[in-house]
């Protein structure tokens, strides 16, 4: 059966998914975006469709017609590369006729795991470990020890805002910092709930990414792929995006994910952000994205092509069996020198096979190769300029008077 993958967005994850389709089936992906980012530019595996208003229905209908004209005899399967686009696809599922597949569950099922407030309620019910959390709505009192993390409960609404000082998460060491950041977010127009959480100590190597696939046909988990983060992006707008990781087996993570899947009824790909808490000797669940993550190519590179799961399940409707672990790899957007420098190990000690998510042997464009080289060099600047959250916490804690390091029972005005 002929098909065309259609991807909304042009980030590193978009390219990873397009790469998976090309390597498994030899097909090019139709990519919809306002502009071509360096991750997808000058690529031979992508057909680009410009759409300025990504969540405008009329614009989407026009783009769909253009794709149908270019690919008239193929089934289309459409993906969102970030939460805004996935939400748009789910909410507007009726726009897509029988020739289009939207590989995501219904809106209620999707929000039950991707809305952070609802996800933590589910974790509480299932006894799945998550950070001590308070949901702030208008006026709330919380009893948490500083430092705390503040973040939006509704990612799509927050993503649509653009304001000075915007960050993915806000690390607050004192009450004053918490007030300032909450005021900043509210004045920018964010109206949904805010999450305040305890900070879980540990450097980047305590972080983990878990990509799981749940079959639509029988609702059972078919794949759990774990990547131990080695270096996380420290830039304020990109915290939580891993730059390098080590793919390995991690049995202890599977059982809590099984409980979440059974209780939620979710199907398709899910990406969990976790962190190992050495104090409790267990993984703490931060959130789940109801889609493939930015670093999804690590799954394909480690032996489980993500495109294959979509086609086998949604298009061919075949029965899937539980995947077994294939191989250990290191995926990295960094040079080996910079990776080893951040891990404080000699370059000669890195013996694992290395995979760069954007580097493929069939991509011959010198412009693309130049972009990837310059991007790799730019990470030297980013990692020098921005400290990791753990280093910020340590530095701030050492500079604060002890009386300011713990503040309990704070009532924060949310405007």
From TrEMBL:
Enzyme Commission (EC) number: 6.3.1.12
Membrane-spanning parts: none
InterPro entries found in the cross-reference section: ATP-grasp (IPR011761)
Key words, A-Z: ATP-binding, Ligase, Nucleotide-binding
Signal sequence interval, chain numbering: none
Top-level taxonomic group: Bacteria
Keyword ATP-binding appears in the UniProt entry: yes
Gene source species: Jeotgalibaca dankookensis
PROSITE patterns reported for this sequence: ATP_GRASP
UniProt entry tagged with the keyword Thylakoid: no
Gene3D superfamilies referenced in this protein's UniProt entry, alphabetically: ATP-grasp fold, B domain
GO terms for MF: ATP binding; D-aspartate ligase activity; metal ion binding
Official protein name in the record: D-aspartate ligase
ATP-grasp domain ranges (all copies): 120-315
SUPFAM superfamilies (alphabetical): Glutathione synthetase ATP-binding domain-like
Origin organism lineage: Bacteria, Bacillati, Bacillota, Bacilli, Lactobacillales
Enzyme type, top EC level: ligase
